[in-house]
Amino acid sequence: MIYHEKRVRLPKPKYIVFYNGTKNQPDSMELKLSDCFENTDNEAPCLECTATMLNINYGHNQELMKHCRRLEKYSIFVQCVREYIQSEPSAEDALEKAIDTCIHQDVLADFLKKHRAEVTNMILTTYDKDLYEKTLKEDAREEGRAEIRA
Questions:
Q1: DSSP state of 34
Q2: Per-residue model confidence as pLDDT tens digits over 52-88
Q3: Which residues on adjacent β-strands are paired with residue 55?
Q4: Comparing C-alpha atoms, which of 68, 6, 56 is closest to residue 26?
């Protein structure tokens, strides 16, 4: 079809972002790539991409969770990990306790039993408490500077 002059019709894409961060966010919101562009000077961007962000933290998007139980169980698991990180001496201890608790309560039990080592490795290699706290402090400083400039 590369030699045809007729335009090829494409299916309309839908871009979805699942949010499970720690900031308070609405159940759903539209994100625009252009919000990240520098120095737009009120010009329309030559490129735009929009995404629907869905908050998948525990307690959010109840209707979605009702229809996708696996996602609901994932949100419960993440909440459990976060709670234990606050009370356990190390991230490793918190994660082990969270996995044990979730298996006992039949929250992703089949997956966690089968993939415990991969889940542990993935979370421990992507979660760096010191870096997380440093990033939060840097973000707060930047927000403070922005308020002072405004």
A1: G
A2: 999 999 999 999 999 999 999 999 999 999 999 889 9
A3: 19
A4: 56
